[in-house]
Amino acid sequence: MEKIKTNNGFKRFRKILIRTIIALLLLLLLLSIALSLPVVQTKIAHYATDKINKEYGTHINIEEVAVTFFGGVKLKKVLILDHHNDTLIYSQRIKTSILDLNKLINGKLLFGDLRLDYFYLQIKNYKGEKHTSLDVFVDAFDDGKKASGKFLMKSKNVYLTNSRFVMLDYNRPNPKDVDFTKLNAHLKDFQIKGPNVTTNINSMTFHDHRGVQVDNLAANFTYTKSNIILEKLEVTTKESFLKGHVVLKYNKDNHDFSDFNNRVKFDVTLDSTTLATNDIRHFYKELDKNQKFSLKSKIKGTLNDFYATNVDLKDYKFSTIRGDVNFKNLFPRAPGKFYMKGDFKRITSNYTDLTKLLPNILGKKLPTSLHKLGQFNFVGDIEVTQQYINADFVMNTALGIIESDLHMSDINNIDNAKYNGNIILDGFDVGDLINDKTIGKVSMNIDVDGKGFTRKYINTSFAGDVYQLKYNGYNYTKIIVDGSFKQPIFKGEFYVNDPNLFMDFNGILDLSKKENIYDFHSKIDYANLVKLNFIKDSISVFKGDIVVKATGNSFDNLKGNLLLTNSSYQNKKDLFFVDYLNINSSFDANGERAIVINSPDAIDGSVVGKYKFNQLQKMVENSLGSFYSNYKPNKVLPNQYLKFDFDLNSKIIEIFNPDISLAKNTKLKGNISSDSKNFKLDFSSPKVVAYDNTFDNILVQVDNRNPLYNAYVQLDSIKTKHYKIRDFSMINTFSNDTLQFRTEFKGGKKGNDFYNLNFYHTINNENNNVVGFNKSELQFKDYLWFLNEKENPEKSKIVFDKKLSNFSFNDIVLSHGNESINFIGSWNGKRNKDLQLTFDNVNLNKVTPDVEKFKFDGNLNGKINFKQSNAIFQPTSTLQIDSLKVNDIALGKMNLDIQGDETLRKFHLNSNLENQNVEAFAANGDIQIVDDKTLLDIDLSFDKFNLGVLGKIGGDVITNIRGFASGNARIDGDINDLDYNGRLFVDEAGLTIPYLNTDYVFDKNSVVDVTENKFIIRETNITDTKFNTKGNLSGYIKHKQFGDWQLDLSIYAKRLLALNTVDQEDAAYYGNAFMNGSASIKGPTGNLMIKVDAESAKGTDIKIPINDAEAIEDSKYIRFKTPEEKKKKANANVAQANNYNGLELEFNFEITEIANIEVILNRESGHGMKGKGNGTLLFRINTLGKFQMFGDFSVVSGSYNFKYGGLIDKKFDVKKGGSINWTGDPMAAVLNLEAVYKTTANPAVLIDNPSFNKKVDVEVIIGVKGNLTSPEPDFNINFPNVGSSLKSEIQYKLDDKDARQTQALYLLSTGSFLSQDGVNQNQLSNNLFEKASSLFSDIFSGDNDKISIAPEYIVADRTPGQQTDGRFGVTVSSKINDRITVNGKVGVPVGGITETAIVGDLEVQYRVNRDGTLNLRVFNKENDITYIGQGIGYTQGIGMSYEVDFDTFKELVNKIFKKDVIETIPPNVKIEVDDSMLPDSIEKPEEKDKKNVELKPNQEAIPVE
């Protein structure tokens, strides 16, 4: 039962519990339903907001609230009014979740994610109030404790969409500070605690009312009463990106935001920032558009006074700014004073980029001329305001380097700004900066104080050094300046110590007043006007002292004085001295001007009158045109006149133009006035030389009031380079509105040509000049021609305008018998011409001037047309020359046709030369005009063309140029730069060199290549036509358009004739010379250089005649010059000069022993020396005609012919080792020779001992030293076969020089010694017999004979006590062959006691080897006499000798024990011709069969004459 009761109680409790829970649930359900109702929720929200509004005094209203069961809250139309009941915060919808309802009720807003749609925050600063509306609202929740205010609002995420943020300040004229629209943001960890706001701006986009559209803004944001912090700030717009850290510091209590630009302090760090000026311009419009910069910096301060440190700004044009800078008043509320001060480590930019950065600040303050600085690098300090600039910097620019410490003020008008300080320029182009091309780079260190940067405003003083100043193309150096310059006044002094200008200047140039003032003194110690680029000449040097004191602003009113003293001027012609020159200009009371020039050295005269300088030319034109009724006079002021009268010195003309000179007594006088009927001019001079043309005795008279004639010109002669005119006279008269001229003169080298020209001048109705020719006579080259022979008044005239630019030529006909030349056409300016020249049966020789090196003959017919239209030239011609001759060489008939197509831009040329039915020359091709250029494409062909026409291009130096050319060539290219190419094969070619008397022929088919400006002679053999010696020739003949011929020929030979001349009266040398070596012929044909560098070959025999020798005089028997006479003669001696104009010779001959050299001291007597030896001789003959010799000749063997009249004729043997040295003058050669003459004589008369009575061998030795024209001979006598004791006794008698000289000369003249008894008959007879023996020897022997026989007879001496036998003997010299030589002397005594003995010497020599160094000898010779009374004895013997020349012992060993190998050149060398250069159309002619002729390497070349 109890169990049942228990169960019933449990059931009852269960029911009650269930009912209770159900009731609670129903209650909760009902409560939930009630709370979910908007009305209930709104009531609850109103309750909460009312409580907040009541507690905090705010105005918060929520129109509708929706709360979900899970705590979600939606607020619609939330409105918070500020303390003026204006909107502070409004949101159309706020969606969030309430995390703590109790705290919400207590004013703590703890939300989950908070979403605000169309959120609007408007912060106002009402007029007169210091706090913003937001400040007032937030202060309502502030409990006064730091960061622990009653109000708390937190949200994890805040999302703003389509929102707006506005800040207004009604205390300013423009109240709107901020207006962000289209604001969308995501804020994380958003919190408002009391007045402090913190959040992490994850993203934010908005449009600023100024125009900036921010695509994203991210930062850690903090807002307090004292600062706003944006950490990790990143801002992105369409063109900009900013990354950094921003802190705004302010004092809210002081209401800093009311003056935001001046009180709110920024502390900004910018990293990796790219700024676009298009964005910045929305805030600061001074920047230019479309510019971008990368920027790094730290910025501190307010917007109107901030410092940017460590600035690193770069634009995309490589402009750079690095440094620290302070800006003030960038954003003034009212116009403020801009200020910038920078310490720049580097600024790299240019004027354009820099002014674009701040166009209204820098663009208006910096001088516009600075754009020429280009890209510059700037380092230094600069301070800029709107009133002044302080700059201490170094700047490297495109114009140069500038270093400045300068203060500038009044920069509002920068071109007229003031400045003072120091300026250093280093290679700075000032002229480019100020637009003056005459000024260039300047280097200077100058202190300046003044104002103005342009010519209009400049007014500055300066002092310092100018190290370099380029003016007028010249760099001046070392200039010191101290002065002032105010356009247009310069006052001060400067000193120039430049290498080409030494100058001092002190004075004033004042061009500012009505009449300019010139008052200065300049001393010029040296001025090279050529180097300074004032004069274009080879030499122009001025020195002088100049003092100027004058006033006036033009030549018309200039008055004052110019004084030039102690001056000189040097040009290419001479050095001119002008000690005194004074020019004075003055005006009298009536305004008549007098210019007086006084300089005895240059010019003396005056000009008096009333006139304007710029109207003088017009006055002269009116005076000359007054003769013609059709003349339209120039407008000139009335009542003008001037009279002039000058005595001219050539010096004044030559100073200004060295190509013109005047003779003394040159006078110029006359008068002219604006009255056109008064013009007179008289000019007279004995001689005028202008540009190498000479005018002798010139007289010019012009007088338009003279009733007989108006002008008269007379000259004795006119000499030009090409033609000479003499007896010139011209007179003109006026009649019937026409000036008639008559001119007569003679012409030509000999005056055989004469000209009688009659022409007139008038002005037609179109005011053009007309010059017409009446019938006139011209005799040219002995042929009489007529101009306008038919006297047609409408023909033979030239019409031209006053500017001399347009001409018309009407039928100007020149005729001679049936020959005529007609010229017509027009010439309009420089670019349009139409001219025609017609030849009818004209003899070429009659009309062609004498052309050097060419003479033309033939019969010419045809036309030549020349047209030009702008740059297009259109020549055409049809010419035919019959019987053409050039240099009297008949070439045949020549045709020349040029035909153009319809466009007149392409012309076909066809020309040929026919000679005896053979087309010796032909030219065929086209002439085209393409792109204003004339192009040629012409083929040339030659077939046995006679080269004799070139026979005179070598002048008198190379003549008899001959041969026949065959082959092809081509001309193509621009007519101003033609290209020639081709190859010719020359037969029967040759040439002659008259000076050398040599003639050479070329091998058959020698090759000549034709190029642009050369005829290239390919390597070929040449042969001299006399001795058939051969050589090798190559080189070229150069020309400029077939003028200005030049030769460059090279010759190489083993043995070639180089000289073949005979003796002439003025011959410097003559004979035959054969060369082993090289030679060249170079230079223009009018001044050729022949150079030979070779050694003498076999057959060389050169003779050098000396016509001024004085060793022996003819006036007395024998007398030697005294030293004083020799010295006087030497001083007066001048090197022998012969005229070889047009030729320069340089013969450098290495003389060997196979050559003969002979110096002839006297042509008539044969007195001279000749021999063989070794040495080097250099012969030079230049164009001035001077002959020179240089070199040394060392004698190996030779003879000295000592001859005097008919008394002495002795041949001395020259000892080996003697020398002759030339140092220029052939007659001043230095001799150092010894020659021996051998004879027999009885020395008994010398020793006075009758026991010795015998003729012995005697050697007379003459030493010749000193100058060739005045040698100093020294005689010695030797007795080779006399013993030492006897010789000593004899020599004792001959110790005295005078005695030895007397005995030697007596011995040479008589064959005996001079005794105290004087001359006897036997001695004279002995001399006559010796002369006869010499003649007999000449008959029976010659220089090249195999055997030489010379008989001699010595007369017996019958002097008492000195009797000797006579002797008849024969000297024999024979060269049996190249190895064996026999020399001997055999005699038989006659006329004495013993006449049966045969006496004499004999030697036979055998040359063992070829070079003659090893020889065998067999001899018989008479014994030496060793004492008085000794008889005659003989010695026989055999010997061997070996000769070696060496310089060192090693060389001796090599020559004895080693064999030298001598390389030889093969005798026959075939010369290959390079055919690779031949065009395909050119073939080498086939050679006909010919015999192979072997060259003889050692062919003799000895003259047979």
Automatic annotation (TrEMBL):
GO terms for biological process: protein secretion. Residues 1481-1505 are annotated as: Disordered. It is a single-pass membrane protein. Residues 1481-1494 have a biased composition (Basic and acidic residues). One of its GO terms (cellular component) is plasma membrane. It is found in: Membrane. Keywords: Membrane, Transmembrane, Transmembrane helix. It comes from the Bacteria. It holds the Pfam family TamB. Residues 1023-1446 form the Translocation and assembly module TamB C-terminal domain. This is Translocation and assembly module TamB C-terminal domain-containing protein. It comes from Flavobacterium sangjuense.
